Amino acid sequence: MMLGTPNHKSTPPAMLAWAVWSLGAGLFLLGFFHRVAPAVLHRELSLDFGLSAASLGSLSALYFYSYVAMQIPTGLLADRYGPRRLLTAGLVLSTLGAVIFALAPSLFWAGVGRLLIGAFVAVGFVCTLKLATHWLAPERFALAAGLLLVAGMMGAVFAGVPLHLASEAFGWRIVTLAAGIVGP
Fold first, then answer.
1. Of 119, 77, 75, whose CA–CA distance to 96 is shortest?
2. How far is residue 128's CA from residue 21's CA, in Å, rounded to a whole number?
3. For burial by CB atoms within 10 Å, which of 2, 111, 126, 166 has the most?
4. What pTM value is reported for the model?
């Protein structure tokens, strides 16, 4: 069975189904991490890029603009091409965004990184729900949806105190680069 291909006659083994589901959930977790990170890294970002509070808010918001803009196209693309392709592209391109953001020599490039991160982690939620409908037994869908939200909130938790401590120890750029490359 191909990843993302529905087979309503039989369900794959539960371990395999949950393993496939967890790949998408990992991208959703990473998305929440990147969503919250600028709030935790506000001092470092402001110093590195010479930002006022308003400019920092604008930099942070670029993630949300591209994330929101991708929601409807994500659904259409997931229906047409399947979640496997979209999740793969989302992971690769959001990683590229994180690398650009972490290595940004200027505010412009930091903004490009944030736009890419937001646009491509946006596929995580819709595609993971679609994976759940294809890979898990129908009576497990609500559980999968709830656990997906838990994964997202865990990303936000990791972007709190752990990110703050790691950025104090290694610097925000190294930590952001590592989070982008290691990913979910």
1. 119
2. 6
3. 126
4. 0.88
